[in-house]
Specification:
The structure holds two protein chains of two kinds. Chain A is of the alpha/beta class. In chain A, a hairpin with a 1-residue loop joins strand 11 and strand 12. Chain B has one domain: Aldolase class I (TIM Barrel). Chain B has ten helices and eleven strands. In chain B, strands 1-3-4-5-6-9-10-11 form an eight-stranded parallel β-barrel, surrounded by eight helices. In chain B, helix 1 runs parallel beside helix 2 and helix 6 packs across helix 7. Classes of the chains: A alpha/beta, B alpha/beta. At the A-B interface, helix 1, strand 8, strand 9 and helix 6 of A face helix 2 and helix 3 of B. Chain B: It is found in: Cytoplasm.
Amino acid sequence: MGRPEVVVLDYGAGNIHSAMNALRHVGANVELSRDSKAILNADGLLVPGVGAFGTVMEDLRASGAPRWIGQRIAGNRPVMGICVGHQVFFERGVEHGVQAEGLGEWPGVVEQLDAPMLPHIGWDFVCPPAESDMFEGVANERFYFVHSYAVQKWDFEVGNPKIKPPQVTWAHHGVDFIAAIENGPLWSTQFHPEKSGRAGLQLLRNWVETL
Amino acid sequence: MSVAIRVIPCLDVDGGRVVKGVKFENLRDAGDPVELAQRYNAAGADELTFLDVTASTADRATTFDVIQHTAEHVFIPLTVGGGVRTVENVEKLLHSGADKVSISTAAVARPEVINEISEKYGNQVLVLSLDARKNPELPSGYEVTTHGGKTGTGIDAIAWCEEAEERGVGEILLNSIDADGTKDGFDLELIRKARAAVSVPLIASGGAGKPEHFPPAVEAGANAVLAASLFHFGPEDMVSQVKQAISEAGYPVR
C-alpha cells in the first residue's frame, strides 16, 4: 500500500505547516487545498483552526468547505478536526458574548472554561474510553493544549441501538471539558497532536493508518 | 493543578546561528539551531523559544528559515521573539511555523499592538516578554526595561503586566535583569508579585544556575521555566535533571 493522501483544508487558518509536517512525518502525502475535487478525493481531510470560533466559521463558510466536509462524513470518508477545527463540529460557539453557529454535527456549545488560569496552555492528561482507536498506545500520555474555550457538557441523543454513539474523551482544567471525539469517520481533538511530541505523532499515525 | 510545569530551553539566534555558544560534544555543528532544537526535543523539552537577536533586516530573513526547518523536524511548541513590531511580523512568523510569538520593546513603545495581534490571532499566540529590573522608586519595586535591560522606561513592571493581560497577551515571560547571568536562582519576589497581579500563565527566566533553583520559582507562581546557558553549557541530561527536581518538589512534569 502506498502513502495515504491527506488534504489539509485551506481556508486561511494560521499555522497549518505544523500539521502538514507532522502528517508527512507519520507517513501521509499531504497537500494544502480548497478545491472540492481534491477535498472529496483525498483519503483523509484535516480541518485545522486557530483563533476565534466566529472568524473560523466565517472563513470556512466563505470557502464553501462545509458542504464537502458534510459529503465526506455522509460517505464515511475520514475527516479530522484540530483545536478550533474540532470546536466547529459542535452546534455553536460563544466568544466575548458573540454567538456563532457551528457545523452542528454534535450537540454542545463552545464556551469559555471556568478556570482560575486562562488560557489553558501546556501539557495535560486526557481520559479516553477503553475502546478508543485514536488513543491506542498513548492513552496515558500528556498532550499539548492551548485554548480558553471548549465544550463542557455532552448531551448526545442516545437511545437508538442502531446508532453507535460517539466516543468522548474528557480532560480537566478548572472544569471537565471535551478533549477529543471519535464518531465513525469523524475524529477531532481540542489539543494539538501535531505539537504533542512523540505521543501526538502516534495519535496522528493511528489516524493515518485508518486511511 | 494538573498541567505540567513546562521546561523551555531558549536559543538566541543571530544570522541563522545560535549565539551565546553551546558546549555539547558529538554535535556536528554546535551553532546550528535546528540541530540543537532536535537535541532538546529528544531530551524532553516541553517547548522551545527562539530569540532573534539579529540587528539587520537581511539577517532576519534567515530566522524564518530556521523556524521553518525546525518545524519540519520538531513537533513541540515553538515560540519566536525578537524584532516583532506589527501584525504583519506575527503573520509571517506564524506562517513560517512559529506557534507563538513574543513581543517586548515594540509593545512598550505602542501598547495597542497587543490588541491588534490578539484580535487577529487570539491571545493564546502572544507572549509578553518583560525584562524587569529592581527600582525602589516604583510602586512594585520593579521597572520595565528595553533593549535587553540597558534602557529604563520608568514604567512599573507589575502595572505593565496587568495592562498587557487586559490588552490581550496569553502568557508573560518574566525575565529578571538583576538575576540574569548570576546563576544564583530566580528573582522569586518578581514572580510572586506578577502571580498576584495576573491570571495568565507565567514563564520565569533569569538566574537559573542548577536544578535546585527551579522548584522555588514554581512555588512562587511560575507555570513554566526558561533558561539558556544552563542547558547550553550544562550536562546533556540537564532538561531531565530540571524536571526531576521539579517533580521531587511535588509539581507535575511531562
